[in-house]
Amino acid sequence: MKDIDKMGIKEVSVAELSGVKIGHAQDYDAMTGVTAFVFEGRAVAGIDISGGGPASRETPLLNPKMACQDINAVILSGGSAFGLEAGCGAAKYLEEQGIGFDTGYAKVPLVCQSCIYDLSIGKSDVRPDIAMGYEACQNAVAGNDLCGSIGAGTGATVGKLTTMARSQKSGFGICTYKLGELIVTAAVTVNALGDIFDYDSGQQLAGMTTEDRRAFAGIEEGMYAGAIAGFSGGDENPQQGKNTTIGIIITNAGLSKGDMNKVASMTRNAYSRCILPVGTTADGDSIYAVSVGKVTADINTVGTLAARTMGEAIKRAVTTDRMDDNEYLAKCIEL
Predict the structure, then answer these.
(1) Separation of alpha carbons 273 and 225, rounded Å
(2) From residue 105, how far is each of 10, 73, 276 by CA, in Å?
(3) What does the DSSP assignment read for 160-222?
(4) Looking at residue 31, what is its pLDDT?
(5) pTM of this prediction?
């Protein structure tokens, strides 16, 4: 890992970033959960969607052509498209707090959401719902730096070219870096088809294992070996099409909606450096980028720092609070 101190970057708690509260709710029996990012004021957002199968809510609002400038919350969850119900729970909570776009007749909370596919671990018929989305918002506090099998990362897994028996447990990761007055937080749920690597060294951290689970097998090589057959997600490849890495960048840089869409797209460099393969038709990879402050900062510097911060968050998602292997395999559902 590069010495970030020599670059003038310091790691700090997300508590130093005002304007956002983070909360988690989860069901460890079902192995699914919700993470809520609740914004307390200005929240100008953009998004980058590079995967082929995103499950999402209200993401068109983030297009610079749309009139909406601020959003009220971002929800990351499990449950695949079923999990979008959690966004309604967040909207219910925000409405009760008097938060939302004022239409004159009611305040309508603007809640964006992305979901991972975690139905192959725990219980496939239990998904995040209105109650869990509401609870995650209730639990939202400033300075929440928790990582691991929590919230939207509860059922996250990686390395799924073949079967769950050769995959590994992942989770939720968060990191905050500060450069002068500029603060960038990255948070991510890593639920990738691919293998996971260190942002700087390239060392493999997690991914598909050999059948005896004693070593990494290498998904890229496996894909090339099956190139003729392809990977359409059929019976021989039951886990393909059931992945997604969803993340968010939050910064105090005072940037526009168009700028935040660019920051989100620059942050994708972290996905490219840390996940292989990435952005496939079997993934729904998405990155939100939200400005909650007014610090003057160059957009290219923000985007570059965002990618580095996201790279560290991805590392923490796969290295913190990893489940015992036997416990993990017992939770996996094989077809």
Answers:
(1) 22
(2) 46, 21, 49
(3) -SS-GGG-EE--EEEEEEEETTEEEEEEEE---SSEEE-TTT--EEE-PBPTTSSSB--HHHH
(4) 97
(5) 0.94
